[in-house]
Design brief:
623 residues, alpha/beta, 6-stranded parallel beta sheet, 25 helices, 20 strands, 37% helix, globular, magnesium, THDP-binding, amino-acid biosynthesis, Thiamin_PyroP_enz_TPP-bd_dom, thiamine pyrophosphate
């Protein structure tokens, strides 16, 4: 990728540029994010240029942990009056916090770390952001350019390590390149398909003097994201919709990333087609809407999974035919034609061949498709989907999302999450780790708006919830933020409670404590003859409780609560919601035998979905 060109110190801003600066307007042709204030050339160090570039890009919050190779940048960062730096307790926490910040606010998240182990501790978060298309910028220090390649102390080739898991990565060895590299990073991260960008800056580049000016000119000839869909393809998609008898709007996380929920609602109501929203799309179409069938996939609703299987047309918007949605790919939606709209051309026909491919932003494509559908309706009338809805409504009524009471006297985890949703409402933000609690949270919280639900989907990172909730709370300080976590996940990143307390970030943590690595235990129950190899965590009921989560919370200066029976459930949740001056951790002790249903076992087709163990819907009856 080209380094482009930058404004040289000898070139002064034109009168037009000065006029725009005075009117606080952005140059019309600038690719640089932020207000694009014009900064005339001024001498500063490379580290000061990093901080100044962040300020000019509009960054107000960063998460990080200092170390030797990034120390030159931490000194001027201390003097910034516009950037709040939040000192984490582990670099992975900084990375996940940057993700949560982006997901909840829509603004790019920023994490900073030093070289070597500091940078490699970010790798999990970088990979997670890459899998789930999140605009995050990771800034790392590197050993001096003269020492690169010598196995110097705390040297690691972080650009090489992260090249497969970043949208773009760049090593900076000259201070003069810093402004352009920073602007380039934010532009690439936030345009097209969002993704993580890494900027690795050698220590001597941070220390060297340079002339800073802003905005730099970006010239990226190899990077031209397509935004508008091809009009011919859009019209062909509308014709397929007109002819379809069993259409389904298959909606993925791209609609959330593209901020296209309003446009989606218009198209859905115009077509009258059922809508399914994937794990990363929960909330982009309200759960309460009569056309919404729920989440498809391995643990999706029977109605959503069945609709895809019986469909004759998939109107695929910002989704990628992930294996957790399709199950066995060659048996997925066997009779369906496919319209596939996506910002990333690499996703089109990657897993399932598209009959009508449309490359572009769903924010642009969906309104164009709605207009084309209106035209077909005007010519041929609106298709009658009554028969299709008769089938789907029967499925919804016969196989609603539910759960069975526990047999050991402990609470149902599903009940805990249902009540959490009832008390906290749709204005709250819900962040999950990975495992059973994640699936229950996706099923039993009522999602009514975009950016309400955050989770690690593609990578499935245990430990995501607490630091991501911290970032979400910083990005949305006026909302209630719940980290719905498992007792296993929570123990991976709970050190960030210290960060939350000291920085007055009052997240709430609901530990769904089944004293187990729950999802692994579920698979051991179903597929390994209940041989529970290394899944007992000893944190719950009738165990030695190591750790005791209430005492752990108190050790961090947080409020620790425990709820062990349903009679206390509502009062405990209300108590947690009433505390807003510090983090609250609630140990919800639940049954270890509760399982996530429905379930499509790994390696089989979606038609083999089970609503409980060895119980599959009667498809002949539905057809």
């Amino acid at each position: 990728m080209s380094n482009g060109s930058r404004i040289t110190p000898s070139v002064m801003p034109s009168h037009t540029a000065r006029d725009k600066r005075d009117r606080n307007e952005s140059p019309a042709d600038s690719l640089v994010p932020g207000p694009n204030r014009v900064v005339e050339p001024v001498q500063m160090t490379g580290s000061e240029a990093i901080v100044r570039a962040l300020e000019e890009l509009g960054v107000t919050d960063v998460f990080g942990l200092p170390g030797g190779a990034i120390l030159p940048t931490y000194d001027p960062l201390m003097d910034s009056t516009t950037i709040r730096h939040i000192l984490v307790r582990h670099e992975q926490g900084a990375g996940h916090a940057a993700q949560g910040y982006y997901l909840a606010s829509g603004r790019p998240g920023v994490a900073i770390a030093t070289s070597g182990p500091g940078a490699t501790n970010l790798v999990t978060a970088i990979a997670d952001a890459h899998m789930d298309s999140q605009a995050c910028v990771f800034i790392t220090g590197q050993v001096a350019s003269t020492a690169i390649g010598s196995d110097a102390f705390q040297e690691a080739d972080i650009v090489g390590i992260t090249m497969p898991i970043t949208k773009h990565s760049r090593l900076i060895t000259k201070a003069a390149d810093i402004p352009q590299a920073m602007a380039e990073a934010f532009h690439i991260a936030t345009t097209g398909r969002p993704g993580p960008v890494l900027v690795d800056v050698a220590k001597d580049a941070q220390q060297a003097m340079m002339e800073f000016s802003w905005p730099p000119k970006l010239d990226l000839p190899g990077y031209r994201p397509v935004v508008r869909g091809h009009s011919k393809q859009v019209r062909e998609a509308a014709r397929l919709i007109q002819r379809a008898e069993r259409p389904v709007l298959y909606v993925g996380g791209g609609v959330s990333r593209g901020h296209a929920s309003v446009e989606l609602a218009e198209l859905a109501e115009l077509t009258g087609a059922p809508v399914v929203t994937t794990l990363t799309a929960r909330g982009v179409f309200p759960d309460s809407h009569e056309q919404h069938l729920g989440m498809p996939g391995m643990h999706g609703s029977v109605a959503a999974v069945s609709a895809l299987q019986m469909s004759d047309l998939l109107i695929t918007l910002g989704a990628r035919f992930d294996d957790r949605v399709t199950g066995q790919l060659d048996s997925f939606a066997p009779k369906a034609k496919v319209i596939h709209a996506d910002i990333d051309p690499a996703e089109i026909s990657k897993n399932r061949t598209a009959d009508v491919p449309i490359v572009g932003s769903v924010k642009e494509i969906i309104p164009e498709l709605s207009d084309a559908v209106r035209d077909t309706h005007a010519e041929a009338g609106k298709p009658d989907l009554a028969e299709w809805w008769t089938v789907l409504n029967r499925l919804r009524e016969t196989y609603p999302m539910g759960y069975t009471p526990t047999e050991d006297g402990l609470m149902s985890p599903q009940k805990v999450i249902e009540r959490l949703s009832e008390h906290s409402g749709s204005e709250a933000v819900y962040v999950a780790g990975v495992g059973q609690h994640q699936m229950w949270a996706s099923q039993f919280v009522q999602y009514e708006r975009p950016h309400q639900w955050l989770n690690s989907a593609g990578l499935g990172t245990m430990g995501f919830a607490v630091p991501a909730a911290m970032g979400a709370q910083v990005g949305n300080p006026d909302r209630v933020v719940w980290a719905i976590d498992g007792d296993g996940c929570f123990q991976m990143t709970n050190q960030e409670l210290a960060t939350c307390l000291i920085n007055k970030i009052p997240i709430k943590v609901a530990i769904i404590n089944n004293s187990s690595l729950g999802m692994v235990r579920q698979w051991q129950t179903l597929f390994y003859e209940s041989r529970y190899s290394n899944t007992d965590l000893n944190t719950g009921h009738d165990t030695i409780r190591v750790p005791d989560f209430v005492k752990l919370a108190e050790a961090y200066g947080c409020v620790g609560l425990r709820c062990e029976n349903e009679a206390d459930l509502d009062a405990t949740i209300e108590q947690a919601l009433a505390i807003n001056d510090r983090p609250v951790i609630v140990d919800f002790v639940v049954s270890r035998d509760s399982m996530v249903w429905p379930m499509v076992p790994s390696g089989v087709g979606n038609s083999e979905i089970q609503v409980a163990k060895d119980m599959t819907p009667d498809w002949d009856e539905e057809d």
